[in-house]
Amino acid sequence: MRFKLQGKIIALVLTVVLAVFIAISATTMVLNRAESMKQAEELSVSMAGEYANMVGKTLERGMSTAKILALSLEGMLESKTQDRDLVNGMLASIIQQNPDLTGVWTCWEPDAFDGRDKEFTNTQNHDSTGRFIPYWFRSEGKVNTEALMDYDKSGDGDYYLIAKNTGKEVIMEPFSYDLGGVMTLMTTMTVPIKSGGRVVGAAGVDIGLEKINEITKEVHLYDTGFGRLLSHGGIVAGHQDESRVGVPAGEISQPGGDVMLKRLQAGESWTEEAWSAILKQNTFKSFAPVHVGNTPPWSFSTVILENEIMASSNRVLKITILISVLGLMIIAAAVWLIVRRIVKPVRKVAELSERAKLGDLTITRDEFEIRSRDELGEMADSLAAMIENQAETVSGIQNLANIVSSAAEGLAALSQEANASMEEVRSHLMQASDLSESNAASIEEGTAGVEEVAGGAQAMAKAAMEGASAGEAVTDTSAGAVNEMNGVVNDLDAVGEKSRESIAMLNQLEVAVKDISGFVSVIVSIADQTNLLALNAAIEAARAGEAGRGFAVVADEVRKLAEESAKAAAQVSSLIQTLGESTRGSIAITSEAGEIMGLTVARAQEAGAGLQEGMQKIRHLVDTIRDIAATSQEQAASSEEMASAMDQLSTGTLQITNLIRNISDASEETSRAAEGVATQAQELSERGADLLDQVARFKIRSDSENRGLIPANK
Predict the structure, then answer these.
(1) Cα–Cα distance for residue pair 125/146, rounded to 1 Å
(2) Which residues pair with 221 in a beta bridge?
(3) Residue 469 or 532, more confident
(4) What distances in angstroms separate CA 213 from CA 35, 186, 621, 623, 661, one per listed residue?
(5) Is the pTM higher than 0.90?
(6) How far apart are CA 678 and CA 684, in angstroms?
(7) CB of 542 within 8 A of CB of 552?
C-alpha cells in the first residue's frame, strides 16, 4: 500500500507527537507511581508507628498493672502482712477497675506466700495443693474467680513457668483459654515476684485480643488497606479479618519467611513490596516494633494493596492518556489542515509533472497556482523553467531531425549523382582504355614502320657503298631506291598520321583525366560535407540525450562512410594525378616522335629529290651516292632513335592503360561506396523520421506561445 504525501506527513507528525505523549505519559506515570509509593510509604510507616504506639500503650497498661501487683505482693512479703483474702480483694478490684483486662492472677510456689497452703487445700481459688493461685476474670460482663490450671505443666503453664524459670517479665504468644465456658483468645503479661533474690511467684494480667483487635480494625488505608498486630513469634494477634487472628502470618510460611521473622524479633522497622499469598496480590507492607516493658518486641504491620496505592496514579494516567488522545486528535486535525494546505500545491506540482511525463510541455508557470516565495514557489519556478527548457530542447531536436532528414535526402541524391558520375567516369575510362589500346596498336605499327625505315636506311647505306664501287648499277639501284623511298615516305606519312591521332587521343585522355579530377573533387567535397553533417548530427544527438542515441549511432556510421569515401577519392585523385602526368609525358614523347617523323619525312623527300637529281645527273653519281650513304647512316640513326622513342611511347601507353584500369577499379569501389552512402543516408533518413516520431509525442506551444518553438508533428 502506497501512502500519499499528506498521509505520510500526518503519520510522521502524529507518530512524533504520539511518541512525545507516550513519553510524557510514561514519565508522568513513573513520577506519579514514585510519588504514590512515597506517599504510601510515608502513610504506611506513619500509621504503623502510630498504631504500634497505641497497641503498645494498651499492652503497657496491662504490663504496668502486672508490675504494680507484683510489687505490692513483694511488699507484703517484706512487711510480713500476707493476707490471701486481701490479695483476692486486690485482684477483684483490679479487674473491676480495668475493663481492658480480661483477667488478673497471681501464682505462688508451695508455701511461698504465707506457709499455710495445707489450710487452703481445695478451697476457693485453691486446688488440692493448697497453693495460692487465685484467678479473677471477666466473662460475659461478670467478674468471676477460680483457681489457675495447668500452671505447673510445660506448654500450657508457660504463662507462669517462663517467668519463674527466667526471672524476667513475659508477654505470651496469643492463645485460647476457656473463661467460664467461653473460649477466649488472649495474651498474658507476667511479672516474676522475687524474695531474697529467688522467684517465689508471679503476678500477671490477661488481655483479650478482641480489645487489641478493635484498635487494629481502626486502621483504614486507601480502600482495603489494613493493620495487623504480630506477636514475637509471628502469630497474628490483631487483624480486621478475625479468621486470621491466632494463626501464623502468611509470610512466615513463604520463602524468606525466616528472614522476616528474625527482623520482627529483632524489633526492626522496615517496609517492603511483597506478594501476598493470602490476598493473591502485590502489597506494600510496613513494620513498626511494639515494645511492652522489658519483654521481647511485637510488631504492628500495615498492609496496602499496590493497585490501591497506584489508583490515584492510574487515574492521573488515565486522565493524561485521555488528554493526550484529545490533544492528539486536535493536533491531528490541525496537522491535517496545515498539511492539506501545504500538500495541495505539491499535489498540483505532481499533476503537472505527470502531464509533463506524458509529453505535455505546454505547461506554464501560472498553471502551478503557487504564489508563495518559499521553497514551494522556488520548486514551481524551477519546474516551469525545466519544462520550458525541455520544450526548447524538443523543438531543437525537431529542427535537427528535420535538418538531418533533409540532409539525408540530399546526401542520398548526391550519392546517386556521384554514382552516376562515377558510371560516366567509368565509361570515359573504358573509352580511354580502348583509345590507349588502339594507340598502343598504332604505336606498334609505327614501331614496325620505323624498323622498316631503319632497315631500308641501312640497306640504302649498303647500296650506296656498293654504288661507290659499282657505279654501273646505279641506275637500276637508283630506280629501286626511288620506289623504296616513295614507300618510306608513304610509311612515314602514315606514322605521322598515327602520331597525330595518338596526340589527339592523349589530349582527349588528359581532358577526361581533368574531368575525373573534377568529379573526385566533388566526391571529396561531398565526403567533407557529409562528415561535417555527421559531426553536427552527433553533437545534436548528444544534446538530445537518450532520445538521440540511435541517431548518434547512424551519424557515426555516416561519418565513417564519409571518411572511407574521402580516402577512396584521395586514392582516385592520386591515381588520376599519376595518369595525368603519364598522359602529359606520352603527349610530349608522341610530339617529339612526330617532330622526328616530320624530320625523317623531310629527309626522305630530300633523298628522293637527290635520287631524282642523281638519275638526271648520273655523272655526279659517286658524289651523290656518298651523300646518300651519309644521309642513310643519319637516317638509320634517326630511325633507331625514333624506334627507341616509339618503344618508350608503347611502354607509357601500357602504363596509361594499367592506370586507367586501376582508376576504373577505384571508380567501381567509389561507386559501391556511394551506394553504401546512399543506403546509410536512407537509414539516416529513417532514423530521422523515427526521431521525429519520438519527439512528436511531446506537446509544445506554437511560435506565438513559446518564443518561436516549433510544435511537434502530429
Answers:
(1) 5
(2) 225
(3) 532
(4) 31, 11, 197, 194, 142
(5) no
(6) 9
(7) yes
